[in-house]
Amino acid sequence: MKLLPWALCLRGLRRSAAAWKYLVPRSSKGPRERCWASIWTVGTKSDLLSEPCVTARIMRPDDANVAGNVHGGTILKMIEEAGAIISTRHCNSQNGERCVAALARVERTDFLSPMCIGEVAHVSAGITYTSKHSVEVQVNVLSENILTGTKKLTNKATLWYVPLSLKNVDKVLEVPPVVYSRQEQEEEGRKRYEAQKLERMETKWRNGDIVQPVLNPEPNTVSYSQSSLIHLVGPSDCTLHGFVHGGVTMKLMDEVAGIVAARHCKTNIVTASVDAINFHDKIRKGCVITISGRMTFTSNKSMEIEVLVDADPVVDNSQKRYRAASAFFTYVSLSQEGKPLPVPQLVPETEDEKKRFEEGKGRYLQMKAKRQGQVEPQP
């Protein structure tokens, strides 16, 4: 009986091998050198302003769903851990007040290829831009089949961190400057910084939105699949300075979004992408957080779920419940063979639901047009 989980792991690896699209040829170099070559073949090494931080971990059954696909939240958590390490390291690279880097935003993240139990995740993070009070980090995730040595790119993500003083975590410190290899690198980074700053401000108007339960909802409606999870923030969720790791929050958000998607289509589902995740405020140890998810839009083969995180500082009567984070997750439904399945169409009922559906449709069409524009013409 003890061998059964590993037998399932190997079966999952064999089943997923045919779907690998991002293979890297093996060479005479050692495993570490081959891994580095693979990462930077698909990454952006020339744009990095620091030595990359690299972590690796084998994917185990606890990291995956019943079909053997690794949870998107598990990958998001690993991405954030690598980003937190390198940004905190940089922010403390000069003499001055010590600080810890806190996650403020994650740009849109696409899950390019599924990762399975038994594969090794290689996560590489590097700094690509710094402003006066923030750090931009680029993270690449590569999965490795340790049975065959083949590798594939699964994720590329951009994260923004701000340095918080260890003496007062409400105080944002200045970021040490970096030296750019070319002027265009700094200008491009500044444009990305201004764009994400504007988008963060635009999300605040939704902060009063609350997901309300409905009795006896009809199938395929928003109310039928909406879900919430209540979690008491403990020491294991937090940094040494008493506020929640961004990766912990993202993992819980993905878990709730996955429940919503599974309730809607009742099949195996996987994370396809995550729109920008905005962290509006820190979550402190001892808070009770409510993670709420609701379906906003469905296309023929995808589902968009809005996830809201509210924090309730129950041990602090001076502070009221507040919106801590928000994002849109996109899921797809898969057959037992791993092929996309049609998604039951969402039935919006209220005017607000219809409005959110149209907004989701706009995001879907915009991203679809962007992907089609990136496809190179066939010779």
TrEMBL record:
Q: Does the keyword Hydrolase apply?
A: yes
Q: Where is the HotDog ACOT-type domain?
A: 49-167, 223-337
- A GO molecular-function term, please? carboxylic ester hydrolase activity
Q: Name one Pfam family in it.
A: 4HBT
The main enzyme category here is hydrolase
Places the protein is found: Cytoplasm
Q: What is this protein called?
A: palmitoyl-CoA hydrolase
Species assigned in the record: Equus asinus
The organism that produces this protein has a lineage beginning with: Eukaryota, Metazoa, Chordata, Craniata, Vertebrata
